[in-house]
What we know:
307 residues, alpha/beta, 2 domains, 5-stranded mixed sheet, 3-stranded antiparallel sheet, 15% strand, globular
Amino acid sequence: MAEGFPKNLMEFIAWFTTEEVCRRYLLEIRWPDGFICPACSGNTGWITARGSYYCGDCSRQTSPTAGTILHKSRVPLMKWFVAMWLVCTQKTGLSARDLQREVDLGSYKTAWLMLQKLRQAMVRVGRDQLVGTVEVDETYVGGAEEGVRGRELIKKALVVIAVEVEGRKMGRVRLSHIPDASGKSLIGFVDGCVEKGSLVHTDGWKGYAGIEEAGYRHRVTHTRGDDEVAADVFAHVHLVTSLLKRWLSATHQGRVGHKHLQRYLDEFAFRFNRRRSRHVGKLFHRLAEQLVLRQAQTYQDITCNSS
C-alpha cells in the first residue's frame, strides 16, 4: 500500500482480502504520523492481536473505528470497504436497494443507514470556501405545483446552488436545502460557503439585497421571472440544476424526501466536485479518511435530526 490507495478494481480486490487488512488500513489513515491516544494524548503504543492500539501511557485500547462514523457498526469492514468503492466508482451512485444486493446485506435498513453515513463523510471537515466569481440561484425539487407562484413553497423543496465560474468552465459547487427564500436563508448560505470579497452573481430577488453588507461584491442581473433569460444568464447553475434533478430521478427514482434531502445534495456535490479526478482509488482513500475524522451517528440521530 505504498501509494496509499488502490488504483483500480483489481488492486482493490487484491488489497482488502481480510478484516485485519482493512483494520490496518484504517489505522494508517487515522494516525498517519504515529499513534496519539484519544484519552491521554500519549504517543507510545503498539497494535494488539485484536487490531487495536494499546496505549503505553494509560493502558487504554483504541480500535481504528472507535469514535468514528464506523463506531459500533456490526457490518464487517470488508463490506464497508466494498460499499465505499462502489459509491466512489459508480458515476451515478447507487441506491440502498443496489447496495443491499451488491454487498449482500441483511436488510434494506442497514444499506440505507450505511449510505447515509457515507454521505455524511462526503462533507470534508474544514473544506475550503468557493472563491472568485460565484453564481447563486435557487431551484425547486419536487416538480411544479398548481396555484403556486414565485418562490412560494407547499410540497416542493427549495434548494440554493452556488457554482464557481472559471471563464466558461465550472469549478466547485455547493448546494443547500433551505426553508425559504428570505435574506436570512440565502445570505446565510452564501456566508457559509463563499469566501469574503468574492463576486457573487445573483438575480434581482430581494432576498439577495444584503450581500454587499455581508462582505461580498454583488453583481445583479434582473431576469424578471423569465425562465429562458434566467437559464441563459445563470447557465452554470441551471446546468447543475438539470444534472441534479436527472440524478435524483434516475438513481433514486425521485423518492428522496425533504427530511434527508441535504445528505443527497452533499453526495451530488462530492461527485460533481471530483468529476475531473483521474484516480477513482484516490476518491475511495479520501472518503475513508473522512470516515475516521467524523463522529458516529445512530439510526435515531439520522432519522430524527435530519432537516
